[in-house]
From TrEMBL:
TM annotation in the entry: 12-36, 56-77, 89-109
Identification of the protein by name: DUF2975 domain-containing protein
Keywords: Membrane, Transmembrane, Transmembrane helix
Pfam annotation, one family: DUF2975
Top-level taxon of origin: Bacteria
Length: 127
């Protein structure tokens, strides 16, 4: 009976983690779409884009953290003696790396965008 409850709780944690990462992924897509729309209107270096890049960075790190917290539940749920445990573990590690990569790249773009915005404001003030 205790094993059934533990597997049920781990399944619920796994489902919540998947839904949370899906919501984060769709939010990243929304902010990316916002950035692309502002690029189409030739408003590339704005505070709105800096905010969007900051949100993408935070969401990328959040997705990585969600998958890090899901490692024990994935290992416990797939610990049935088959070789699928290793594959699920490597998929989880790949998703963690993907979230960190998205966060680092968004941080890099945010720094570049904020420096260019700062130089653009200084240039407008000197002319």
């Amino acid at each position: 009976m205790a094993l059934f409850k533990a597997n049920t709780i781990l399944t619920i944690i796994f489902g919540i983690g998947l839904y949370a990462s899906a919501i984060g992924s769709y939010t990243i897509i929304f902010f990316t779409w916002r950035i692309l729309r502002s690029i189409d209107t030739n408003q590339i270096f704005t505070n709105s884009n800096i905010f969007s890049l900051n949100m993408i960075k935070l969401l990328g790190y959040s997705i990585a953290a969600i998958y890090m917290l899901m490692i024990p539940s994935i290992l416990a749920l797939s610990d049935d003696g088959r070789s699928s445990t290793l594959g699920m573990f490597f998929v989880n590690i790949f998703l963690i790396g993907l979230g960190i990569t998205i966060g680092v790249f968004a941080q890099l773009l945010k720094r570049i965008c904020s420096k260019i915005t700062k130089f653009q404001i200084e240039n407008e003030l000197t002319i």
